[in-house]
Amino acid sequence: MSYILLHKENLHNNLEIIKSKLGSLDKLFAVLKDNAYGHGLLLMAEELSKYGVKRAVVRDVEEALSIKELFLDVLVLSEHPQNITPISNVIFTINSLESLKLIPKNTKVALKVDTGMHRNGISINELDAACKLISASSLNLHSIFTHFRSADEIDANFFWQRDNFENIKVKYNELKHKYSLKDVFFHSCNSAALLRSNHFNDDFARVGIALYGYHTLPASFKEINLKPVLELFAQKISQRELLFNERIGYGGKFRANEDMTSSVYDLGYADGLFRLNGNKELKTTNGSLILGRTSMDSISINSSLDGISVFNNAEVWAKHFDTISYEILVKLSPKIKRSFYKK
Ligand SMILES: *Cc1c(COP(=O)(O)O)cnc(C)c1O
């Protein structure tokens, strides 16, 4: 079977970089949504908890329930309000005024405000109404947060949203008296926003991709020494010698320009691996050429190794497919066995 190995020392390296930006790991909400960006939710949650991370972010209730014992708080980003019941140490995101009306009393919640991304969250001028509803239904408001639409682009957008968020802080601190609400925490930064900032001044940051070893900031930030955590391996099913001019796989896309070895490995697009169409060259970690098109359950490689590292840096595949490392990682099937690399 194909398998995934996670590099623990790289994860620790990334945590130290994040910690140095935050001042303390206590300010970290580690984003473990969607199977920890394909790395394996439980495996990552256990290791982070052991390292001293106290808070995590997930997508839905199911993910929250599977890891809540490991953390002080687990923030759920996008559960449907009708599925929500209060659960101790699970914080549910309020994404609209509508959902505030549906959430049961006493639920621990985080209020998302839209400072310019125009995706989820209440608008700034709905803040008064939101506070009123929160107070009326005795919700336990943990924090107020926002998300940047272009934290990784060096232009004015980021600063505009950050100013909007600073206004929210001021406005809430006025409204809390009006509606007898308590002090809350504020958080806005994802990985890119945290890594680019020199003085972090929220209570928490929600960091995902940097944990896993990547960032999407411009080349001028290349001194940020994050290291990829995930390495994907495949195992050999069969091996053959290709003769000059023989072609391989669907459409015969690859043609041997000399006699060569080709092995079939047990990893295909059914495993969430992006499908190569054979038009553009791509190599494995050790520089072996991938031959022709990816099949559903297999891939041909110019190698005779029994086990081969397909990639140890998702950025290589992201570039090939004109996408981002997030997508390459998160699509890896949960069926692939994952474990930490043992030296
Ligand atoms: C996914 C997500 C994050 C983490 O973003 P990264 O770029 O991976 O650090 C933070 N906040 C919210 C609301 C998210 O959806």
Folded structure, characterized:
This protein has helices at 8-22, 33-37, 41-51, 61-67, 97-102, 127-136, 156-178, 191-196, 209-212, 314-320, 325-330, and strands at residues 3-6, 28-31, 55-58, 73-76, 90-94, 108-114, 122-123, 140-145, 185-187, 205-207, 230-242, 247-248, 254-255, 260-265, 290-291, 299-301, 307-311, 337-340. With 343 residues, it is of the alpha/beta class. Strands 2, 3, 4, 5, 6, 7, 8, 9 and 10 form a 9-stranded parallel β-sheet that branches. Helix 4 (61-67) links the parallel strand 3 and strand 4. The longest helix is centred in the middle third of the chain and has 23 residues, at 156-178. The radius of gyration is 23 Å and the shape is elongated. The model has no long low-confidence stretch (mean pLDDT 95). Bound molecules: pyridoxal-5'-phosphate (PLP).
